[in-house]
Amino acid sequence: MAGEHRPPPGTVVVGGTDVRDSSAWKRSVGWVPQRNVFDPGERVLTFVTDVGWLRGLSRAEARSAAGEALELVGLSDRKRSRLRTLSGGMKRQAMVAAGIVHSPDVLLLDEPTAGLDPNHRAFLTGVLRRMADRGISVLMSTHVAADVEDAERVLVLDGGRIVADSPVADLLAVHGSVDAAFRAVTAGGGAS
């Protein structure tokens, strides 16, 4: 869905944009992969600015937007730091800033809280909630039950098939916990 690989047969359309229309898709979607993808020697502001430029912003727009994105994720005081000097949580924050620098309609995140300490996880969850409050659709893949509890809706895949698609509150009401719901819907049944 992030447009990084050629899609299989079929179509994926988000907000009226076919993911195969690479330029339009890249402008409308932000992508935060599980692994940090940056040059550790690069400065934080340069990294986020460059991503904005790659996503279609002019250099001036990208630099301004990078400053705003870094402010939103709490890294404006580290914008001149080299990425290698940041903690693991701060590196994730830089990746999220890069994912939102071009003001996407959709933000895709792969395991965004993996390896974060509780403080960085709580901070990042707050950032993602603010993104959603601004009208950005935030979609994440995760194995962290607490991440699911913080979401509005959950889609559970098992063997590449959707086995649950419902508001988190509904799954919790039926199963009591995210872990219990996951075990129930992947144990051969499926749930709505």
TrEMBL record:
Highest taxon listed in the record's lineage: Bacteria
Alphabetically ordered keywords of this record: Antibiotic resistance, ATP-binding, Nucleotide-binding, Transport
ABC transporter domain boundaries: 1-114
Molecular-function GO terms, alphabetical: ATP binding; ATP hydrolysis activity
One Pfam family it belongs to: ABC_tran
Keyword Transport on entry: yes
This protein's record includes keyword RNA-binding: no
One of the protein's GO biological processes: response to antibiotic
Coiled coil: none
Subcellular location: Cell membrane
InterPro entries in the record: ABC_transporter-like_ATP-bd, ABC_transporter_ATP-binding, P-loop_NTPase
Bilayer topology annotation: Peripheral membrane protein
GO cellular component: plasma membrane
Main location: membrane
Family matches, as PANTHER family: ABC TRANSPORTER ATP-BINDING PROTEIN, ABC TRANSPORTER ATP-BINDING PROTEIN NATA
Similarity comment: Belongs to the ABC transporter superfamily.
Protein name per Swiss-Prot or TrEMBL: ABC-2 type transport system ATP-binding protein
